[in-house]
């Protein structure tokens, strides 16, 4: 019974935020998902020779078109 009372108190304390979460469609879930994938790529890609290769892999995963500028080694992206 004590746990139910604690949970009810927590819901009462955060009532405004719970109602906002239910009523609105805003969520940061997609951003958190992308951050998780990037962290995983960083772990798996430990042997990559450059940040450029890691960045290319992340952009490819997100279906961005990758173009290398001919004047430099910089990466250009287009959705």
How would you briefly describe this protein structure?
By secondary structure, the protein is mainly α.
Blueprint of the fold:
Blueprint (H helix, E strand, L loop, with lengths): L1 H12 L1 H9 L5 H16 L6 H11 L3 E4 L6 E4 L1
Antiparallel strand pairs: 1-2
Order of helices and strands: HHHHEE
Shape: elongated
- Beginning-to-end CA distance, first to last residue: 53 Å
- Please identify the structural class as seen in this structure: mainly alpha
Radius of gyration: 21 Å
Total strand segments: 2
Largest sheet: 2 strands, antiparallel
Roughly what percent helix? 55-70%
Give the count of helical stretches.
4
Strand order of the largest sheet: 1-2
Which residues sit in consecutive blocks of at least 5 with pLDDT less than 50?
Answer: none
Overall mean confidence score, pLDDT = 80
What is the beta-strand fraction?
Answer: 5-15%
Can you give a write-up of this model?
The protein is mainly alpha-helical. It has four helices and two strands. It is elongated and about 60 Å long. It starts with a helix and ends with a strand.
